[in-house]
């Protein structure tokens, strides 16, 4: 897809003014984080499992070449084929070729972030193959020609009225005045339409949550069951996955599954966890005759061994989005590309270049919640700071911002001077606020005060309040 | 694209500062795979038989599955007929007779019309046999094969699963071990084309976070636990 990640500020401003989006994001932040907390509380071993999940992914990355070779050997033994692709373009060409070989008119798809990353739908459409998204949320945004706004809830930004309007506009064969007020009616309509597509499809294209080196299996996690209809009905099953999805054994995959759903939706387990190994076996009554794994690099090997190495541990649960104050204010589309939230702000510049995403690392308060909830403990704030540092060093930030930072750094390096200055400023601002506790306008700070108030200081700095306390109250000297 | 493989592997080795392809790491990687050691297994599933079965039922019901128990395979057709009648469903189902027919006397329930084969989407009700259950999360484990086509699990709105009480394990790791033990072929492989873990009926919350059952897969999941073969 076309990226608008370079326009984060404009995108975010638009999103902040969108009342419908606000309602949708309020619902999200009321649901997923609370459910995650409950699920974590219910499992005493949750924190220890997160450590193990982190260690498994870390170990795999350190030995990625060996695990990929082992995985490939098992896929081939099971009768499948692995197609190695360096770039998005190579993956698109490979998938189109496999579809053409299968004589495919229709390809059913289950949600794949890599599919979004390489814009496979546009490519297939352009060459006369109809791609049909089958995850309910993904189907809705495909009809609307929008990118997903959340990794696991792609249509989170839409109201049921917007979805009903889209269905009326696109499903022209159905009665114009049919009732579509209830979510159930929308679901039933999509289910009916997609059933025909499932049965008619020549190729099923899925993503993979994991690839297992021990058995050559691919792992699919869904709640709807759409992935299972996608691979079990057509004659050809193509799995599209990036390199870092690999894990050593079934046991390792199991550990990661124990933290994945709990972190994502707060479920103990997603409804359907599926392990596919090769094509159908002699005697099987169903299943695909061909099994292909398209293994994509697309920038991963560049991240390996560098500052953003740990980002490759990501299992795409969406917990960092659900807990991020910025994501919860502006939603996923403001980030301007396939991914969003803290993981997106780190990953997008790696995949499409910092010059195309310069605001994203700054779209964070560095509150640290993302790292706190990450099931594989990715140090997202550290990596956001690393991008900021690179921007500063490459002089990609504005002159005013750089001068301001230098000015502040000078004072921060001289504590006595900083304290004198801070005491003066805090006292003066307190008096100026005349006890209202906030400023509605402030010279040179229009960028802040046009949309919000500036809190006024309490009158004394923290240090002077601390010194003002008696030794007995402040605990020690 | 023939050199894509070599270039990707080469880029990985360069990034990891490890030029030679077959070093000591390769051996330790092979050993780690062959050992397939279990990681931390939550204590939740480590229970005696009765408590384990109770946990399985509790967890399955927690995710909107329904559960019934019968004392022997002969009781399955009657339970299925009862469930269909109670939910006002047609007395017609699809299953695979070759194996389940041996132990489940469908013909004794004359009200039930039983068809054989894989599902094609026209069925209201399908019945399949689970390889195992996992108490930890109320999960069913289904294996694809001549006697259990995958489509039976996903196409019908109502899915009924027969599960032997002895096949209810505490955790997933026990299932992988059992699979390796019972299914390894001469070629050394044990994974069927598809292993499905199923935890409750299909659902989606993609529309305004409203939880709806029966998104693409079954709306109802009914588990019939057979006590007789314990």
Describe this structure in words.
The complex is a heterodimer of chains A (477) and B (230). Chain A is 51% helix and 11% strand. In chain A, helix 3 crosses helix 12 (250-264) and helix 16 (341-352) packs across helix 18 (380-393). Chain A has 23 helices and 12 strands. Chain B has 230 residues and is of the alpha/beta class. Chain B folds into 2 domains: 4-35, no CATH class; 44-226, Rossmann fold (3-Layer(aba) Sandwich), CATH 3.40.50.10420. Chain B contains 7 helices and 12 strands. In chain B, the strands form 4 sheets. Chain B has a 4-stranded parallel beta sheet, sandwiched between helices. A 4-stranded mixed beta sheet of chain B has the order 8-5-6-9. The N and C termini of chain B lie far apart (55 Å).
What fraction of residues of chain A sit in β-strands?
5-15%
Mean pLDDT of chain B, to the nearest integer, reads: 92
> What oligomeric state do these chains adopt?
heterodimer
The CATH topology of the largest domain in chain B, please? Rossmann fold
């Amino acid at each position: 897809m076309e990226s608008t990640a370079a326009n984060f500020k404009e995108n975010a401003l638009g999103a902040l003014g969108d009342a419908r989006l606000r309602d949708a994001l309020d619902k999200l932040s009321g649901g997923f984080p609370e459910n995650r907390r409950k699920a974590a509380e219910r499992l005493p071993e949750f924190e220890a499992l997160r450590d193990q999940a982190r260690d498994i992914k870390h170990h795999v990355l350190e030995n990625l070449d060996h695990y990929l070779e082992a995985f490939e050997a098992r896929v081939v033994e099971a009768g499948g084929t692995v197609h190695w692709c360096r770039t998005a373009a190579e993956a698109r060409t490979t998938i189109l070729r496999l579809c053409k070989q299968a004589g495919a008119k229709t390809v059913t798809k289950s949600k794949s972030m890599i599919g979004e990353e390489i814009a496979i739908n546009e490519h297939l459409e352009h060459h006369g193959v109809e791609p049909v998204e089958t995850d309910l949320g993904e189907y809705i945004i495909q009809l609307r020609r929008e990118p997903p706004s959340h990794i696991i809830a792609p249509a989170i930004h839409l109201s049921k009225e917007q979805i009903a309007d889209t269905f009326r506009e696109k499903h022209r064969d159905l009665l114009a005045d049919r009732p579509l007020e209830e979510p159930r009616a929308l679901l039933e309509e999509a289910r009916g339409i997609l059933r025909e597509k499932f049965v008619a499809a020549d190729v099923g294209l899925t993503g993979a949550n994991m690839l297992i080196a021990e058995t050559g299996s691919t792992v699919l996690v869904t709640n709807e069951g759409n992935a299972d209809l996608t691979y079990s009905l057509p004659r050809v099953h193509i799995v599209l996955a990036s390199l870092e999805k690999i894990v050593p054994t079934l046991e390792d995959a199991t550990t990661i599954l124990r933290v994945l759903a709990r972190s994502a939706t707060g479920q103990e387990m997603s409804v359907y966890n599926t392990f596919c190994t090769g094509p159908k076996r002699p005697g099987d009554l169903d299943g695909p005759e061909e099994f292909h794994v398209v293994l994509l690099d697309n920038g991963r090997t560049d991240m390996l061994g560098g500052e953003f190495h740990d980002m490759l541990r990501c299992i795409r649960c969406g917990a960092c989005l659900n807990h991020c104050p910025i994501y919860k204010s502006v939603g996923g589309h403001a980030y301007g590309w396939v991914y969003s939230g803290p993981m997106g702000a780190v990953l997008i510049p790696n995949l499409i270049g910092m010059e195309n995403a310069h605001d994203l690392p700054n779209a964070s308060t560095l509150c640290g919640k993302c790292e706190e909830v990450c099931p594989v403990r990715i140090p997202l704030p550290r990596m956001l700071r690393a991008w900021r540092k690179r921007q500063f060093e490459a002089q990609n930030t504005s002159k005013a911002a750089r001068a301001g930072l230098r000015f502040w750094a000078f004072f921060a390096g001289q504590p006595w001077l900083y304290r004198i200055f801070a005491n003066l400023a805090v006292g003066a601002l307190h008096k100026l606020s005349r006890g209202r506790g906030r400023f509605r306008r402030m010279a040179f700070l229009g960028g802040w005060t046009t949309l919000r108030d500036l809190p006024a200081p309490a009158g004394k700095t923290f240090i002077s309040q601390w010194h003002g306390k008696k030794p007995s109250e402040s605990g020690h000297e | 694209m023939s050199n894509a493989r070599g270039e990707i592997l080469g880029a990985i080795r360069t990034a990891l500062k490890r030029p030679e392809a077959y070093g000591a790491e390769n051996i330790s990687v092979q050993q780690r795979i062959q050992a397939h050691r279990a990681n931390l297994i939550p204590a939740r599933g480590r229970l005696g038989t009765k408590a384990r079965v109770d946990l399985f039922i509790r967890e399955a019901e927690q995710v909107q599955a329904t559960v019934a128990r019968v004392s022997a395979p002969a009781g399955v057709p009657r339970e299925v007929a009862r469930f269909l009648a109670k939910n006002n469903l047609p007395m017609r189902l699809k299953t695979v007779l070759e194996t389940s027919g041996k132990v489940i006397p469908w013909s004794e329930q004359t009200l039930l019309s039983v068809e054989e084969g894989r599902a094609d989407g026209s069925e209201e009700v399908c019945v399949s046999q689970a390889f195992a259950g996992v108490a930890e999360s109320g999960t069913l484990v289904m294996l694809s094969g001549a006697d259990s086509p995958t489509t039976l699990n996903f196409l019908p709105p109502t899915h009924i699963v027969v599960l032997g009480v002895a096949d209810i394990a505490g955790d997933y790791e026990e299932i992988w071990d059992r699979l390796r033990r019972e299914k390894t072929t001469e070629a050394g492989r044990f994974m069927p084309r598809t292993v499905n873990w199923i935890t409750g009926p299909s659902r989606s919350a993609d529309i305004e976070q409203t939880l709806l059952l029966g998104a693409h897969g079954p709306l109802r999941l009914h588990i019939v636990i057979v006590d007789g073969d314990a």
